[in-house]
Amino acid sequence: MRVVVAEHAGVCYGVERALRLTSEAAAAGGPVHTLGPLIHNPQVVEELRSSGVEVADDLSAVDGGTVVVRSHGVDPAVIADAEVRGLAVVDATCPFVSTAQRHAADLAELGYTVVIVGEADHPEVEGIVAHAKGSAIVVQDAASLPDRLPSKRVGVVVQTTQTAQRLQEVVDALLPRTSELRVFNTICSATAKRQKAARELARSVDAMIVVGGHNSGNTTRLAEICREENPNVHHIETPEEIDPRWFVGVEVVGVTAGASTPSDQIERVVEAIERIGDG
């Protein structure tokens, strides 16, 4: 049984940057808390905790030291509150997320109805909504658009880990309903590359394994994309979840991973699959 890893898979620049900034804060000494899990990867979050980096649900749980704004970003009011409390703030917001936040803020300032394509309960989207002064409309797809829009001047931004297809569907639905439509494609390039590589690989293999947190939106979307091309797709976090029965009659296995999945986690999954093949 042969294992092929997608050309683009695993941690992206934004995640690497967040991990580096957090590690540097921990090395500097003093208590360090991340506001929510730094990334959607439970194993990495646990490793950070073992090095002294704790997770705080909100600022009320932080007595002092340093707080790290995770890669998903936050409401700017949270950063202001942290500074008022005398906390050191390390802003590890992914640059692509920062771009989406800035566009949402600018559109709201100019009086556009802001439409965000994404998951309403995702922390990244919650932060973008806050930058749009809290008045944005969040839609997961074209069918989620409201029957009536507040105005015919609409600006669109998109959660960085969404698919270009979903963005296009929303834009197509908005075009006949608007007099002015501004669209900012804020899908990050790393996400687009991972999705394209995963789709192409899924077409050419007998089974596909997607590695990453079950709570990771971008990893879940990779699995969805792979299932559009191949019915034998499994989303796992660790090698222990692998079931040998998945590979009965399988000659080639494809592996991809979400943007919050370090290379060592991918390698362990590949080794586990190869052991099954050798057995």
Structure description:
By secondary structure, this protein is α/β, with parallel strands linked by helices. 41% of the residues lie in helices and 19% in strands. It contains nine helices and twelve strands. The strands form three sheets. It has a four-stranded parallel β-sheet, with helices on both faces. Strand 6, helix 5 and strand 7 form a beta-alpha-beta unit. It is flat and about 60 Å long. The termini are close together.
Task: Offer a few descriptive terms.
279 residues, alpha/beta, four-stranded parallel β-sheet, 19% strand, flat
Q: Ranges with pLDDT <50 over ≥5 residues?
A: none
Structural class: alpha/beta
Largest sheet: 4 strands, parallel
**How big a fraction of the residues is strand?**
15-25%
How many strands appear in the DSSP assignment? 12
Helix fraction by DSSP (H/I, runs of at least 4)? 40-55%
- Biggest sheet, strands in spatial order? 1-12-10-11
| Shape by Cα distribution | flat
